[in-house]
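Let us practice reading a record.
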Amino acid sequence: GDAVVAVDYARRQLDAATALQDLELVALAQNLLGIAAWARGDYSAANEHHGAAMRSARNCGRLWTLALVTALAGRSAHATGDQQAGEQLLREAEALAEEVGEPMVLGSALDYRAHAEFALGRTVEAAAFAARSLAAYRSIGYQEGLASAGTLAAQLAVLAGDHERANTLLNQALAVSRRLRHLGGTASVLEAMAVLDHDRGDHKQAE
């Protein structure tokens, strides 16, 4: 399947980058392996690959690459239950992204922090990070990011009782996810829409 193809491609990239002794390409290939592991739900492997990518990126001296892989390392650390390391890494990624002026990576770091705070039940903090993430994504029109952060912001709006804002955000996220043919994103939005309908008493629509 696609996951097997992605892993094979990433391993070939890693072999080639290692042969060339190009640490930035090594970091990016290790990062791809981490993304592939994440996609198949193997968060422990993703954490290992992103950690290796981060070490390679630090040695190559490219701040953009370091910011990118550090954000993903923070996400995977959170997913494996290491909240302290995850928060520290996402803060580092945020600072690096601001230093190099990279809105996509900044939005991602804030997006991951928002999801981590939400998972821990800290909704006020999650809402603040989601809002900042959306602003970063909007500044460059990064559609997949807008769908991700927008869906979370909508879920938080539901919890706050702001059904109108939640509905607006979810319709925007659904349009983006469908346009990108992002099945996982579309499913997440539809699930959140069902929760919204149930919360405002529209049980028939929620079904």
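A brief commentary: The first helix runs from residue 2 to 20.
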